[in-house]
Design brief:
There is one protein chain. The chain has about 270 residues and is α/β, with parallel strands linked by helices. Helix 2 (about 45-55) links the parallel strand 4 (about 45) and strand 5. The longest helix is centred in the middle third of the chain and has 23 residues, at about 170-190. It has a single domain, classed as Alpha-Beta Barrel (TIM Barrel). The protein has twelve helices and ten strands. Bound molecules: zinc ion. The site of zinc ion has 5 residues, from strand 5. Zinc ion binds near residues 70, 71, 156, 160 and 202.
Length: about 270
Amino acid sequence: MRRAAQAVPVLMYHHVSPAPGLVTVSPESFRRQMAHLAHAGYTPLTADQFLGFLEGSYAAPRKSVLITFDDGYLDNYAFAFPVLKAFGLRATIFAVTGWLGDGPVRRDRLETEKGWPDCPNHRACMEAVAGAQADRVMLRWSEVEAMQGVVEVHSHTHTHTRWDKVHADERQRDAALAQDLADSRETLRARLGYASAHLCWPQGYFDARYQAIARATGYRALYTTDKHVNTGSTAPEDVGRIVIKDRRDAWFARRMWLYSHARWGRIYTALRGK
Ligand SMILES: [Zn+2]
């Protein structure tokens, strides 16, 4: 029998795209990173398996990993999905459910290898969303469906709003957040047929009240941008994630090793500070 995992690294990506940026990994680097996971024998978990690991109801294989993407960009479908599929890996996208559009799968562009004029950098994506042109740069529900079996989708709220910056009044803030989380959960249920237990905080912002609201909405696993190690004793409401950058293969391999080993990962994060 395989030994169970001590710690499970949760990788955080945003864009996989040839348009460079701070939160972008190039398609070449992404392929090499996924090749490393596949060849080193990592088992990518489903989000529910990962939650089971934290809750103690699932013995994750010794080398397990959770691969996550934030926001739900079209480039995830164009550049990450084919690679994940080719290596037999699976991943989770935390989608801003209100940004995903309708319409057919943009398969034609996938099949023409000439690149994707509409997979611009992060800043241009944010401008498109702000200018009511989210469909140019974000996933469609048809594309989410086309990725089923390889990619699962969970919540990154419905609107990606930092309600703490909108409402100074705590009651208004909490009510707006509660609505946002409920809208997202309901959208996932209506579109995909399941009630997700997984929520990722926009810009990593949360406090104890946010956590209570999320819990009351039905979310059990809450994903942060804190880079701590996730072990069987990590609270599901405090999932740590590692920002994956466009760096050398050795950088990626080292992080995978550290965050899979509870003790060394803890020492490393303590030395580095948060
Ligand atoms: Zn985000």
